[in-house]
Amino acid sequence: MWKGTVFTQSSPGWTDSGNFTSLCPNGSRWVWEGLGECAQDGRDMASVCLGLLSIVCFMVSSLPQYYSSCKKGNMDSALSVWFLLLWLGGDSCNLIGSFLADQLPLQTYTAIYYVLADLLMLAMYMYYKMRHKVVHRRTVLNVVGISCVLGLTAGLAHCPGVDPEPEMILSGFRSRSLLSTADASSIQAFTTKEIVGFSIGSVSSVLYLCSRLPQMHTNFKRKSTEGVSYFLFALVILGNTTYGLSVLLKNPEPGQGEKSYLVHHLPWLIGSLGTLTLDLVISVQFLIYRKAPVQNMNLGTDETAPLIPS
Q: Residue 243 in contact with residue 54, Cβ under 8 Å?
């Protein structure tokens, strides 16, 4: 969901001094070598900084939920398993794309971290599910869903990447979704790498969008957000906001029009802004249900409760 496009080479050693001098003469060397970005003015630097801030927000967004889950112990009733599965699916697409599109190490390592954080969240969910000994008809379906997502991630992650383009390409670092890459000499045609990125980015954006709907339904059904950390969504909102600003601030490459630029990055813009909108709706639910009594849907009747109320 990040627009940033920069001149990079697909071959090893693309960050050497010769390429930097010829391809990004007025740019920042640390940005070029570390992120693959050609930041040549204040707008580009602001875009890079906002993009990095969005990555940090996404990386720490799960920590408040870990704490809340350990403290309250009702993660299995507070969070929707489909929210977790679809979020994992979006991050898995991110990881798959980082291999198929030969992304920078920072992108790949960040994508791996996101998937591991999601898996830890799912593991905690299943732990509390088993701890409360709740058996539902959908348990098997949930396990199958988890297995399918993990199997797809493991299988495609080992697929060979797209063959590098011989010509110079455009790429950028991602926040929580895959970036597209494009040929600087043609603003209309999609390169092979760009098609891969565009396709996976579209799937990733749809999964991120759909992930919010089950959680919104769970909150509405429980009439409570107890057990859900608002900081999880607050940090994601901040991440998507800074990501969107980084998209808007980044200067288009020479020869690339604004319309073409938006078209090439449309899936990630829609995913970012759409997810931001749904997270704001969830924020409204936090305000509405902040003092509401908890209606626990998962836990059965307490075996220690008296049969006849006194």
A: yes
Q: Is residue 162 part of a domain?
A: yes
Residue 37 lies in a domain: no
pTM for the structure as a whole? 0.74
CA distance linking residue 182 with residue 261, whole number of Å:
10
Report CA torsion sign: 252, 21, 194, 55: negative
16 lies in some domain: no
Query: Which has the closest alpha carbon to 175: 216, 208, 212?
Result: 208
What is the extent of the structural domain holding 280?
42-289
pLDDT along the chain (310 residues), means of 10: 38 52 77 79 87 93 94 90 95 84 73 93 92 60 62 56 42 44 50 79 91 96 94 95 83 72 78 91 94 56 47
Give how many domains the chain has, as a whole number: 1
DSSP class of residue 252 equals P
